[in-house]
Amino acid sequence: MNTILMIAQIVVSCALVVCVLIQQRGSALGSAFGQEGSTFYGSRRGLQKKILYLTIFLGIAFIALSMLNLYFSK
After folding, report:
1. How many CB atoms lie within 10 A of CB 52?
2. Is residue 39 part of a domain?
């Protein structure tokens, strides 16, 4: 059980890092892939909003897995 939790925690943490790195403040998602020139501070829409929700979900999942790992390690 402990091994499964550790592997799940590693997978979630890697996905969380990728989601955080994709998000860039003050620019659209296209600038992460080479598009330049956007300085518009608008609301998040479409894919950016989904990535934000995914980041929040992964953060909560990482904390839950950490607590479960701590509980089952005793």
Report:
1. 13
2. no
